Amino acid sequence: MSTPSKVAAIPPGMHSITPHLVCAGAAEAIEFYKKAFGAREGGRLAGPDGRLMHAHINIGDSSLMLVDEMPEWKCLGPKALGGSPVTIHLYVEDVDAVFAQAVAAGAQVKMPVADMFWGDRYGQLVDPFGHSWSVATHVRDLTPEEIRKGADCPGTGQ
Q1: Are the CB atoms for 102 and 135 separated by under 8 Å?
Q2: CA pair distance 24, 87, nearest whole angstrom
Q3: 36: which DSSP letter?
Q4: Which listed residue, 21, 25, 75, 103, has the most CB atoms within 10 A of its CB?
């Protein structure tokens, strides 16, 4: 009888939580994420009909999984569902550059980039597949009191 090998419970390079996005056109979404956010493709598995059953990309130090819509399995993306309550948050070195790059790649601006009261320069986008993204660069370290004070002044961005 052979001894089973020790396998890492969390594979190397993965984190405890990994978003798994359903896209109407997962292959096209991968190309968009490459152009918009500098994603690196980790692999993909197509089913017999050509639809992606699984795909893996990396953006920065994080992973993202994708799959094509499969209505017969009730696997639908945000456009088919009329939107999504989920926003994917992405920290980057230069929010203005990445935001402009994502818009040039086809994302729609939901909230323009601005300095926020909690210390981030922050904006929101919707990608061509209906997924919402917030993109930010942390620019100021603030105390909880400073953040509470800033929150009392909505609309100022400070």
Answers
A1: yes
A2: 18
A3: H
A4: 21
Backbone angles phi, psi at 34, to 5 degrees: -65, -50
130, two tokens: 């209906």
Alpha helices (H) in 8-54, listed in sequence order: 26-37
CATH class name, domain 20-152: alpha beta
List, in order, residues 6 or more apart from 33 with CB less than 8 Å away: 39, 57, 59, 64, 127
**pLDDT per residue over 23-53, tens digit each?**
999 999 999 999 999 999 999 999 999 999 9
What is the number of H-type helices and E-type strands within the chain? 4, 8
pTM: 0.89
CA distance 105 to 127: 9
**What local confidence, expressed as pLDDT, does residue 83 receive?**
94
CA distance between the termini of the chain: 66
Count how many residues are written for the chain.
Answer: 158
Encode pLDDT of 83-124 as tens digits. 999 999 999 999 999 999 999 999 999 999 999 999 999 999
Main-chain dihedrals φ then ψ at residue 148, nearest 5 degrees: -60, -45
